[in-house]
């Protein structure tokens, strides 16, 4: 399998290199040159397989020759062995039609663990015994930082520098990052906002002198391997609900369009997906794009579902590219226009292609709270605010009532205890596996939010290019 850039001007890469590279050199994102096709027999053969065995079958065509089946099995077994549920991503039934796919049984209680636990192991596998050393730099408003740190802590060949806005992440989120004391983990609290932290990271990637000294890498969802790992649970859930004979719909609380793009990939591979429901909060650029073709940014409104508070959804470019004949030149032009005016119209081909598979909804805070209350009182299930946005959209969508609708439960409710309590009146306790989080020692440094302070700090600690 080879990977091509959505903007058509970067070299094609194999799986190993696409995993170690973030953005393509032309500013685009890597996608497979073609979608592997699963026949109905291939899908039927997934019945009864464990999560790990399902993962190996679904990912094998993307990995190609870069890992043997045994190597892939060993990495998946270790990554998913850290999950607290034997089914890794269990399905829970809410009513006759609605299901939750619980993706939060990993070490940091959010769905990002499913992909990042594996990505950390891919990095180590591909770097051990080489003279390449990765310097991962990221900014986080909470979930990505803790999942990425847990995934690479103590691994060979990588250092991680994670910037968070000082005093502006929850105590649980901060402690999940700062109590990891491995020597390759560097937590930096920036005096400033999340946007300031993110701007500092972008400036490092765009600084030729700095990126000449260190092999910088990213762990956000522009990384193809993360999306690939997420395709697995769409197959795992749909097969349990009757695929390939029966179609299944998915409702996905969406921010950067990574999780729901993985659902699109599953459909392209042959999984019978009736609809993918893109659920947004009031930061609704994706709902506007899918319902009226208007992809234009505004200002971010902070909400109780902070992992969905975004202005620009990086992975949307992958969908637009695939829907419009995979024309890298045209895509580069469309994105250049967007980057200068912060707005673009989808083409007719893009709108029609998207309408065939996607529905979308913008969920107001009142509907989100109502979904949390409904899940608690009618189904005995406490859900987090992100999941509630997905569930609210799932319950409103107009679909054939015989089609099961699976809402992706992207975070454990204990990660957002205040919002859960406001809606339902009760607090979700932290699960036992993270129970002593508040007794553990923390380690992080506070830096002013200036480029000089942050780059000097990293340069003193990172391993330079060989
Ligand atoms: C990251 C995140 C999302 C959004 O996922 P995308 O892949 O960016 O669309 C939704 N919910 C939670 C809890 C998250 O951490």
Automatic annotation (TrEMBL):
Q: Which reaction does it catalyse?
A: O-phospho-L-homoserine + H2O = L-threonine + phosphate
User: What is the similarity comment for this entry?
Assistant: Belongs to the threonine synthase family.
- Name this polypeptide is given: Threonine synthase
Q: Name one Pfam family in it.
A: PALP
Cross-referenced InterPro entries: Ser/Thr_deHydtase_PyrdxlP-BS, Thr_synth_N, Thr_synth_N_sf, Thr_synthase-like, Threonine_Synthase, TrpB-like_PALP, TrpB-like_PALP_sf
Name any Gene Ontology BP term.
Answer: threonine biosynthetic process
Q: Which residues form the Tryptophan synthase beta chain-like PALP domain?
A: 87-329
N6-(pyridoxal phosphate)lysine (modified residue): where? Answer: 112
């Amino acid at each position: 399998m080879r990977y091509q850039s959505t903007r058509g001007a970067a070299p094609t890469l194999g799986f190993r290199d696409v995993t170690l590279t973030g953005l393509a050199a032309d500013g685009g994102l890597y996608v497979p040159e073609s979608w592997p096709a699963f026949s109905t027999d291939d899908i039927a053969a997934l019945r009864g397989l464990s999560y790990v065995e399902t993962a190996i079958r679904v990912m094998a065509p993307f990995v190609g020759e870069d890992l043997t089946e045994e190597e892939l099995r060993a990495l998946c077994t270790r990554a998913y062995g850290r999950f607290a549920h034997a089914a890794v991503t269990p399905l829970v039934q809410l009513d006759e039609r609605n299901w939750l796919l619980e993706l939060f049984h990993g070490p940091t209680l959010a769905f990002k663990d499913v992909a990042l636990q594996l990505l950390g192991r891919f990095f180590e596998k591909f770097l051990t015994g080489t003279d390449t050393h990765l310097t991962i730099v990221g900014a986080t408003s909470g979930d990505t930082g803790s999942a990425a740190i847990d995934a690479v802590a103590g691994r060979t060949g990588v250092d991680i520098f994670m910037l968070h806005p000082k005093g502006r992440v929850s105590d649980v989120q901060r402690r999940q990052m700062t109590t990891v004391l491995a020597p390759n983990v560097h937590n930096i609290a920036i005096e400033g906002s999340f946007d300031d932290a993110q701007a500092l990271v972008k400036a490092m990637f765009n600084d030729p002198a700095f990126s000449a000294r260190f092999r910088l890498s990213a762990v956000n969802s522009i990384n193809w391997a993360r999306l690939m790992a997420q395709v697995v649970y769409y197959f795992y859930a749909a097969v349990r609900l009757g695929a390939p004979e029966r179609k299944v719909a998915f409702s996905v609380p969406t921010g950067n369009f990574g999780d729901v793009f993985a659902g699109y990939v599953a459909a392209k591979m042959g999984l019978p997906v009736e609809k993918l429901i893109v659920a947004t909060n009031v930061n609704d650029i994706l709902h506007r794009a899918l319902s009226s073709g208007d992809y234009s940014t505004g200002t971010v409104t902070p909400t109780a579902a902070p992992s969905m508070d975004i202005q620009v959804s990086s992975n949307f470019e992958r969908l637009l590219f695939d829907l419009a004949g995979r024309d890298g030149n045209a895509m580069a032009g469309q994105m250049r226009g967007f980057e200068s005016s912060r707005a673009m119209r989808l083409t007719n081909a893009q709108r029609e292609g998207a309408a065939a598979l996607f529905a979308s909804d913008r969920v107001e805070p009142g509907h989100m709270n109502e979904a949390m209350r409904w899940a608690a009182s009618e189904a005995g299930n406490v859900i987090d605010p992100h999941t509630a946005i997905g569930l609210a959209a799932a319950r409103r969508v107009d679909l054939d009532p015989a089609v099961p609708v699976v809402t992706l439960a992207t975070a454990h409710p204990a990660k957002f205890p205040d919002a859960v309590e406001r809606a339902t009146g009760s607090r979700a306790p932290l699960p036992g596996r993270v129970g002593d989080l508040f007794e553990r020692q923390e380690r992080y440094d506070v830096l002013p939010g200036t480029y000089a302070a942050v780059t000097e700090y990293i340069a003193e600690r990172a391993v330079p290019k060989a």
